[in-house]
Amino acid sequence: MNAPAGGCLPEGFADLEPWAAEWALETEEARAGKRVSTPIAKLREFHAATFPRMDAVMVYLNTLPNDPGALAPRDKCLFALAQMVMEASAPMDLQWDTSDIEDVFPMERMKFLSLPGR
Amino acid sequence: MNETVADRQARLSGAQGYDTSRLKTRVDLASILTPEHFEVEREKIFRRAWLMIGHTDDLPENGSYFVYEVPTFKASLLVVRGHDGKVRVFHNACRHRGNKLVRAGEGSRKSFMCAFHGWTYGNDGKLEILTDPHMFESVDKEDYGLIPVTSEVWENLIFVNFDAKPRESLAEWLGPEFFGKYSGYFDLHQKSASYGFELDCNWHLGVNSFTEGYHTLYLHKNTARDYQGGKINPQRHRPHMELMRRHHRYSAPGNPDHRIQPVEALAIKYGRKLLPAFDFDYSMLPEGVNPSRYEYWAFDVVEFFPNLVVIAGNHFRTEFNFWPIDHRRTQVYVRRYTYKPKNLGERVSSAYFVARGRDVVREDLNTLEAQQQILAAGTLPHVLLSKQEMALQHHFAVTADMLEAE
Fold first, then answer.
1. What is the pTM of this model?
2. Has the ipTM of the complex gone over 0.90?
C-alpha cells in the first residue's frame, strides 16, 4: 500500500503509523502470509502495540459506511490494519511459542480464490 | 431425563432411516484406493449423483457467470444467469472446434465470443453469431448452441448431473430431510473466504476427515482446544446423528464452558460468536439446522453424498467440495461463509474467525497425504471405525450401495 504524505492512517491513530506501511495488508492471502512468515517476537510486538487500540479503531470504523470498496485511502489502511490484528492474534490467544503451528498443511499450498459476486 | 450425550449417540445409532446392518466397523480401504475401483466409482457414483458446483448468489445479476472445473470428468463448466434471470449450466466449449469459451474466473457478459473464430453465444447458450456462415456446409445455428449440463437448484445451491438421463430428480436425491427444511438458511450468510488446493490423496479420505468429531480433541488441540464438549461431554460425543439413504448429518456439541480469550472477546464484542465460542440461540434457524434442537449446539456436519461436506453453523457455514482427479489425487474447494455484516466492525470481527477457521482446516488436511501413503501400500488389513465415526461407516455403506446398483 502506498502511504500518502504524512503517513497512511486517519487522524487520531498516529501512534499506529509505524506499523501501517508494512502491516496494513488488504487481502487475506497477504495477511495470512505475513503472520506465518514473521518471527513470533515481532508478532508479539505488533500485537502489544495495536491490540490495546482496537476498541478505538472499531468505534471509528463503525462510523464509516459499510462498504470496504468505497473507503477513503486512510480509512482503507486502518481497516486493513485492524484485520491484520485479528490475523496475527492466534499465537496470542492460543499461547503459541511460534508464529505458526508445526506439522500443519503448509499455507503456501492453499490457493486463495477470488470471491465471485462481490 | 438423565440420558448422557454418549447414551444418546448409542441409542441414535440403532434408530435411523438407514439399514444399519449395512454399516461396517472394519473397512478394507486399500482395495478402495485402487485405480480400478475408482474407475467404477466415477461411473456408478459420480456420474449418477447430483453434484453441487456453486451458488446462485455467485451470479448476482443477469449475465453473471463463473467457470467451474470438474476434474473428475475433465469437464469445464460455464455457469450463467441469462438475460431472463434463469441459471443455466453449459459445457464451457465452443461448438465449432472445442476451444474453451472462457478460460477461467467470473464476471458479467451479455454474450460470449470465442476468441478462436468469433462464434458468439448469448447468455442463454444460443449461438447468435456464426462468422462467415456461407463457407460452412448446411449448418443451422439452432443446432449449435452451447451443450447444456443437467442442473437444478435447491435453496441457492446449484447441482449438476452428468448422467445422460438422470435416474432421480434433485428432490428425490436429497430427500425429505433437506427439501423444504432449510428455507432461507443459505441466504443468512455471505462468502468471506474461498480456497482451492490439490491433495495427493483419494477423495474418500478427504471427505472422511471432515465428518467425525473424534479427532477434534487431539488434532485441533493447538487451534480449538476447548470449543466442543466440555465438562458435560468430555469425549465430545455427537448429540444427534441421522443416517439417510444417501446423505447424513449430525450435530456437534459446543462447550458451554469455553474460555474466551482476549482477542476473541474483542471479536465477539464487535461481532457475533462463530467459533470457538458458539451462539446457542438457534431459535431463528429453519428446522433442518440443529434438527434435534440440542441446547449447546455448535454446528451440524452434513455430508451430501458423495463429495460435498457442509459445516452448518448459526452465523457461519463452511462448504468443502472434494473432486477426484484420479484414484490418488483430489481437487478441494473450501468456501467460508459468515453472517452478512452491517458495519465494518463486524467485518473485522469476521476476520478473526476466518483466520482461526483456516488454521483448523489446515490441521484437518494434514493427515490426508500421510494416510494415503500408508493405506494405498496395503499396510493395514482394514481401518477400524468407532461409533464416533458412524458417519464414515455410513459413507462406505452408501458407496457400496451405489456400486452394487445396476
1. 0.95
2. yes
